[in-house]
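User: Can you write out an input/output pair for a complex, sequences first and structure second?

Assistant: Here is one pair. Inputs:
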Amino acid sequence: MTPIITIIFILAGSGFAIFLQKEKQILLSTWVFALLGSASVFAISLPVLFQQTESWHDSIWLLDGFSALMATLIVFVYLMAALVSVRYIWHEHDEKIITLADLKLYFALFHVFALCMVLTVLANNTLLLWMALEGTTLSSTFLVGLYRKKTSAEAAWKYIIICSTGISLGLLGILLFGYGSSVGGLKTEGIFTLTSLFKNAHLISPDIVKWSFIFLFIGFGAKLGIVPMHIWLADAHSNAPSPISGLFSGILLNIALYGIIRFRFITDLALGSSTWTGRLFLFFGFISIVVPALMMLVQNNYKRMLAYSSVEHMGLINFALALSPLGALASVIHMIGHTLTKSMLFFGAGEILINYKTTQTQQVKGLLKKAPYTAVLFMLGILAIVALPPSILFVSEYTIFTAAFALHPVLALCVFLALSVIAYAMLRSTVDMLFASAENESEIKKEKWNVTHWVMTLQLVLIVGLTFFFSSSNGFAFIDSIAKNTIYISR
Amino acid sequence: MKSLQLLKILFFGPKVTEDEKKLRDFPEDAAFQEVGEQVALIVKKLYGGRSLRIRAVDGGSTNAEEIELTALNNAYYDIDRFGLSFVASPRHADMLFVTGPVTRNLETAVRTTYEAAPRPCIVVAVGDGACDGGIWKDSYAVVGGVEKVIPVDIKIPGDPPTPTEILRGVLHALKSKV
Amino acid sequence: MTINFIAYAVFAYFLGLIFSAGFAIFGNHWKKSIQLFVLSNMIGFIAGVSFLVNFATKQIFLAKVDWFFQFSPSLNLLSAIFFTLISLVAGLVGVYGCRYLELYKETYEPALTQFLIVIFVFGMQGVLFANNTFSFLLLWEVMSISSFFLVFADRQEQSLKAAFFYFVMTHLGASAILGGFLILGNGSLLFDFSNLTGAWQLLSPTLQATTFLLFLFGFGSKAGLVPFHVWLPEAHPEAPSNVSALMSGLMLKVAVYGFIRVVFAFVGLPSWAGLMVLALGLLSGLIGALNAVIEKDMKRIFAFSSIENIGIIFAMLGTSLYLLAQNGNANLVEIANLILVFAIFHAVSHAFFKTALFLSSGVAINRFHSRSLEVMGGLAKLMPIFSFAFLLAILASLPLPPLGTFYGEWGFIQNIVMLLHDSTLGTQVAIVMVGTLSLIGLISGLATFAMVKVFGISMLGLARNKHVENRDEKKDLRLILPIMALALIVVGLGIFAKNLLGFLNLNVNFLTGLSVQANYFVGSQLSSAAVFLVPAVLLAIIFLLYGYFKKNITERKYQTWDCGQPINETMEYSATAFSAPIRFFFLQLIKRNKKLQSHPVIETNPWIRNYAFSLSFDSIWKEKLYQPIIFILKFIAERVKVIQGGRIQFYLLFVLGTLIVALIIFL
């Protein structure tokens, strides 16, 4: 019962993408293998998630509630992105924007990328975790630069340099954890295993733990997109093809956060309380909310706007993590909500790009007339992401504010103001795109309902449905069972 | 020396340039006075102790009649003491003086003035032109006498009629209304 | 008439609203939607009235919905008054909307607009029933967002800008209210309003001050209190006229309701708080009245008039708070109670007449195809019934007896005068009261001037614009009758003022549950019905006498005497000229832009020129307060943008720099 099956399926999918020649066959194989791969992960993660089976681990793999949740989210978005990719890339190939070789490269790397993400969250060995994370960076670099334009190449270059630098700093952190635990007396085979680190955290000396956590936080934080290491994020997420941007913003950032959270738990156990890490999260989370708020006021590219929104939401999750233990629950809910909403928004942005062939907000006009389905779904997504009820983000944000007003009222008010500024900026761009009338209304090719719209609708339904689930006490208990003793220490 | 003289005149000289007796000493027009007093009595009776207001309309005259009407208002003739005064709007008028033959251009003005004046209004045609057209009688530019445009109560002939004749005409008109 | 009846009626009302919304959005049956909407509002009105008659002093709970954030809708006297008010007015506006949306089929999409209007009314009414923070804010947001979409119903760029400005202000306000409630509830969103006083008393003085200021900003910005009023003259004119009527007439009252409900539960509020509310109220009144006098856009004038009336209401509320803070004798508390009652009465009458005014502006603008007063005129001859209704509405807006608005303001003035007679009054209080009195007089005078200007220029005289729609007035009866009804209601308020005020007085449980003797009651010697009847009877007698003596009078009609010059519309008073004396007097307080441009007709002759003159007004608040804030934000944003320089070495430096700084700070 290991993820070996998944690995086989997904690598097979990748291989088929490389070796098949006809475009339709590649697309079909992508669907099939994405389904198979997802099913295999669902088979192992869903039982653990809903507490039908106990969480288990061995020396390489770890599957507890949190990993199960992340794995479920990853493959869900992977499946959705695969569906959207099929339509999107097929369209781009049709329009001769990309060649067949590019298409094969895309799908091959797509599967490998998803595989690396799954391995990251299922890893128990910290070095395997690190390798998988680096693997995501390497596999997705070429995806960012798929279009071979100057801006894409530059974005890919920035992406790989900064993320790899960050992840190398993270490696230093992991090694320092290992060093600290071995100095503290842990056996050699345990120093790079998460579960044994959890059990023996008290052996690690607090000073070493602090150093290693800072290295890890800054390093993985560069991958996460914490200000001021976020600078690559806007470029990379806006130049990548839209389904990949959906994967990036939706789930890859969560994975980097996953790594940080795991090691934070060890740090907290070693230090005895979460105050020190809390300060780190609070500071970086706060500036990661305020800076994107300012940047969004002067954005005129809707994909960059969505990318900055991702930075802001990651900042909000970091801010929430500083407010244990209520904040920890809020952060999990927020992660789930952000994944669903942001990926859906990027899929929608892909549709807008198909219709208008430009990412400049000023040049997109009259979306409501030209592409009504996309427009309405996109608008609903924007309303969900500015945390309008009944969006899940509303539930998480009010939980955050409940905790924040009690602990740090001034900061909470500033965050409130920043969120209002962001809501204004996003709504202004969106409404401008939707309602401003286009010049030549004569040649309006009305768009047809396609698979992207199915995906977006499904995600919207999930967003609303999960809101009601999470706002009830059952939902809270469910999240609590995931977060307890993996994210926050229960007393 | 000259300045001393000036000062003497300024402070010690007479206060008027003319001799005071000479100012008041001028021949009165007895006929005018008599007609005027009769007009004053009738006006008092007709208008309940109030004055008679007159509006002068120029229907295209040579202004000779206007000069005489102006003379009626000056310090010598002074019809205000008899209770007659000129007003600026036909809406305030009890009596209309129409002068001049009514030219085609001013026909509308005469007509609207008459219509705007509230009834009862006494229309007086002053001067030969107003009576029957005068020397412009059959001219292409002229409608004719005032009676061709609006109903006239009394005509005062003359080119222009003297102030006394005008006042006599007013007296006749008022007598016919008593 | 039990609680069950009321509960079922209210439930039927909201259900009716939902179905009405459904009719509008699915299948385009917007006319059916309006019919159901009006019917539901009638049911709501009946429910409200039955509550007021039967249960006035109590608070009743209509339901208990625990699974939805512990929502249990409740009605007390204050919310019932506003509920009845909103139902009645919304029903009448619905009738108006039937014809109005038909006339403007191309500009506003009727189905969507009607849907949003129903949701808007749903939100407003829901706020009145909310019993905890979550439900209050949820329905407040429903109200704000639906009105946001309604403001740019015609999807022009100007209305979009106004809508966005409104959106930002309303969300800042909602955040402030949320912040206040969170502080009161110690972070819990399920904080029940029955614990308001208790929770307030547990706070420290600084937190109390913060909470009060947050609520003042939150409710004040929604109500249109200066200096948070800047969105109002932009947003209300751009919306369709029936929506402007709903927003100005009803939404502002919901904000007043919120303020009264929350702030008057704060026992022990310091006197500076009351003084602040009073000062802001008087300032709003002054600015609103002044701008109403100098503006030329009919709907902007009405928007500023709303600001002025809200200013008067808040001045009354502030006086009440200030008097309560004096810790004086029971006399002061009674007067504070009374002033609160008059404030509510004025709010109610303002709702009626302001709605009537905005509906009238819709009719006028439809005929003249423009909002500017400078092209209006002469409509009274074309539409006599409408001009009578409009005249009644204008009269209703003036604080003159025997109409209802008079009693609100007069009660306030008379109570202040009574207070000044009290020998135990402190000097500071006396000075404040005298100042208030004089300013209220000034405000009322300016307001009267503005309303006279509006009616005179738009209805009387000759049309200043030849392109007046000459449709038969009978076709627009559905537009005119609601206006007439609303104006007559204000007349009714005037006639029955004493009874209504007495009823409110006896049932005041807003403050300390004291019921009041009618000692200081306005006009205890004066009956409001008599104030109405006496002039009415006198007028009737005069008409009869005129009719009798008319037989001896002959009348002859003739055109106006024009001294030979043809009279045309260019000779009439223009709106700018009419307001010139006041404008010149207050010139320092107004930001006026005068532009005179000239260019020669023939280039070689510089002495014969064409002149173009334009006069416009800017909001000083927008320039001195809001623009600098926006400018600072944009400035910071542009500076922050610099970090996205583009050179990768720079970025790497950032990463490593952050690492070093983090190591230094956190270790």
